[in-house]
Write a structure and sequence with these properties.
Keywords: Carbohydrate metabolism, Cytoplasm, Hydrolase, Metal-binding
Structural class: alpha/beta
Number of strands: 6
Strand content: 15-25%
CATH topology: Rossmann fold
CATH architecture: 3-Layer(aba) Sandwich
Number of domains: 1
Number of helices: 6
Largest sheet: 6 strands, parallel
Organism: Microbulbifer salipaludis
Helix content: 25-40%
EC number: 3.1.3.-
Protein name: D,D-heptose 1,7-bisphosphate phosphatase
Family: Belongs to the gmhB family.
Bound molecules: magnesium ion, zinc ion
Order of helices and strands: EHEHEHEHEHEH
Distance between the termini: 17 Å
């Protein structure tokens, strides 16, 4: 069973201008939950890797984050799938940690937890730091145009980097799931 790594904000749920700070603000994007359930039912292990610097800044606390993730897991389970794991970075830029994307600490932790390699696994994100993190770990970078994705795509097109040329672009998570499952 292959792991698919998913960014959270802007991929699975709506990305406000700043941070999702409460469970009520955690609102799934259209089709995202069903896409996750379909991928899960097809045997893929869905693992989320998300930067949550709002924790370091005190914008919300661990209870808030756990409530968001309980909601996410419950919605996917109601749709007949499951989330295999949720890994988050609680730090801010100033902490210079190893886990804040584009650093690969979250992916290292996923590999350790699942005793596997993420090489050639899909990594779906909406920001450049997701794509850079994916490439640094040998994952296949996938950009969705939800969240900050359209802005990221415009920036990739206006400022092409050879490193990011392998990025595949989809309208949203549902279209990515269709591609994987076809
Ligand atoms: Mg994002
Ligand atoms: Zn971190």
């Amino acid at each position: 069973m292959a792991i698919i790594v998913l960014d959270r904000d802007g991929v699975i749920n709506h990305q406000p201008d700043d941070h999702v700070t409460s469970v009520d603000q955690w609102i799934p994007l259209p089709g995202a939950i069903e896409a996750m359930a379909q991928l899960s039912r097809a045997g893929h292990q869905l693992v989320i890797a998300t930067n949550q610097s709002g924790l370091a800044r005190g914008l919300f606390d661990l209870d808030d984050l756990e409530a968001m993730h309980a909601k996410l897991r419950a919605l996917v389970e109601d749709a007949g799938g499951e989330v295999a794991g949720i890994f988050y970075c609680p730090h801010s830029d100033e902490d210079n940690c190893r886990c804040r994307k584009p650093n690969t600490g979250l992916l290292d932790a996923i590999e350790a937890e699942f005793d596997t390699s993420l090489h050639d696994c899909y990594f779906v994100g909406d920001q450049r730091k997701d794509l850079e993190c994916a490439i640094a770990k040998g994952c296949k970078p996938i950009l969705v145009q939800t969240g900050r994705g359209q802005h990221t795509l415009a920036s990739l097109l206006s400022n092409p980097e050879p490193q990011l040329a392998a990025t595949a672009v989809f309208a949203d998570l549902a279209h990515f799931a269709d591609f994987v499952l076809q």
